Amino acid sequence: MVKICCIGAGYVGGPTMAMIAYKCPDIQVVVVDISASRINAWNSDRLPIFEPGLDDVVRSCRGVNLHFSSDVESHVADSDIVFVSVNTPTKTRGLGAGKAADLTYWESAARMIADVSTSDKIVVEKSTVPVKTAEAIEKILTHNNPGKHDFQILSNPEFLAEGTAVADLASPDRVLIGGRGDTEGGRKAIAALKAVYARWVPEDRILTMNLWSAELSKLAANALLAQRISSVNAMSALCEATGANVSEVAYAVGKDSRIGPKFLSASVGFGGSCFQKDILNLVYICECNGLPEVANYWKQVVQINDYQKARFVQRVVSSMFNTVSGKRIAIFGFAFKKDTGDTRETAAIDVCHGLLGDMAQLSIYDPQVTEEQMRRDLATAKFDWDHPQHLVPSIPTAASGQVAVAWDAYAAAKGAHAVCVLTEWDEFKKLDYKRVYEGMEKPAFFFDGRNVVDVDALRKIGFIVYSVGKPLDPWIKDLPAAPLS
User: Fold this and answer.
1) Cα dihedral across residues 246, 247, 252, 253: positive or negative
2) Which GO biological process annotations does it have (predicted)?
3) Annotation-wise, does 87 bind a ligand?
4) Distance (Å, whole) CA 295 – CA 18
């Protein structure tokens, strides 16, 4: 019987291993993590992450052929295939700070695998890592377990979209497996992992390639997707300046079969654990390989994203008589996208910081994000979110009196001068906005950072509305724009 162990019980490791166990009932799968609280949550009725459909998959095989444990070393030693899905945060200090990936946790995992292994292992990179990481891991494994056991390294990057992760795992566009196809051991390892996925993934969707191509394909995919978002967000600024409607422009452009409609929705900016981190990593790799022009090209994708968030804050402040000091602003949504409780690199953090910097009073509501998580995010320095919590220093942030967390959207908006929609939760499309309006201070402002509402309907109710990339409300259009700081 094949035994699989995954080091890391996060957003990638947990769902991926659950799907493997679900589709392969004869394979024993164990997910291990040094965080006992995270493992306890995976073994409880309330999983540590929210993902539609995940509860059903986990409960159908948990305790049968899917197990969650904090006994890391014994399960690694007992396994045939070890997936490594640990954090690869952006370095906050030292060489490459602010761009390069910090491989501290990956290196620690590799050294532990070498120390505890009592048999040959296939070690699978599941984290997003820089090109040539496999080579470094190979050296660590072979030099710390010289001649005792054979370690084959594979790259198997994930392409999950949060909110649809279960569907993505059940029916992926492609599965990439990178390995040393020029050696017999490498070919056998590739075949072994391919046989696992082939239980439910059509063979023509399982792509095999060399290690470096697989590692780079993940960074390239995220960079190109983020580039599309930044491109349409750059267009949204031009649309506002000219009176064009970015939704109409995106629809027309997306009808071109060479382009397509996906990832052309203008918004307050992209977030999530991968896009910014992976692009900055790509920038660093380009710089290290003597390609400054290529590095600057990709750096601009991140800069446009930062610009879009700053521009949104500027619209809020300039529209409200150039100050939000002391004003209550309702924040609808804190997660980086709908159908997930993930807040990593969410645009809401930067928008909230911008408003708090102008001394606004915030009232935040999100259906899946806890108050504890919101406050932690607002007190965590950039790039520190991906490290274990006990290693993360807090930064000075707004006093508790400046931030309140509400139990629903109506409570958040009660007595507010403005509403800012920062996550495209479906419930925000269905609210009784007449009720919202009646409970707010007047004039009542509505800033739609996700283009989820009917702008004309809200204006008829009485709101002064700003929607990203849409023709400006006469009120906003006639005001002088505050400069971006």
Assistant:
1) positive
2) glycosaminoglycan biosynthetic process; UDP-glucuronate biosynthetic process
3) yes
4) 37
The arithmetic mean of pLDDT across residues 32-60, rounded, is 95
Residues 175-193 have pLDDT tens digits of: 999 999 999 999 999 999 9
Name which of 168, 157, 225 is nearest 51 in CA terms. Answer: 168
Closest CA to 5 of 115, 116, 84: 84
Could you tell me the sign of the dihedral formed by the alpha carbons of 435, 441, 445, 451, in that order?
A: negative
- Say if residue 275 carries a ligand binding annotation: yes
418-421 β-sheet, strand order? 403-405, 361-365, 328-332, 418-421, 445-448, 464-467
pLDDT value, residue 394: 53
- 38: annotated binding-site residue? yes
The burial of 200, by beta-carbon neighbours within 10 Å (0-12 exposed, 13-18 middle, 19 or more buried), is given as: middle
Please indicate if the annotation marks 370 as binding a ligand. no
Tokens of 203: 């063979």
* R_g (Cα) of the chain, nearest Å: 24
Q: Is 105 annotated as a binding residue?
A: no
What are the tokens at 209? 């390639």
d(CA 207, CA 194): 9
Query: Is 11 marked as a binding-site residue?
Result: yes
Give 316's contacts (C-beta < 8 A, 6+ positions apart).
Answer: 324, 329, 355, 418, 420, 445, 447, 466
Q: Which residues are within 8 A (CB) of 135 and not within 5 positions of it... i.e. 6 or more apart?
A: 211
The rounded distance, in Å, linking the Cα atoms of 27 and 246 is 49
How big, in percent rounded to 5, are the helix, strand and coil portions of the chain?
45, 15, 40
274 labelled catalytic: yes
432 has a pLDDT exceeding 60? yes
Query: Which of 357, 324, 318, 320 is closest to 484 using CA atoms?
Result: 318
- Which tokens in the block code for residue 419? 């509403």
Counting beta carbons within 10 angstroms of the beta carbon of residue 144, is it exposed (0 to 12), middle (13 to 18) or buried (19 or more)?
middle
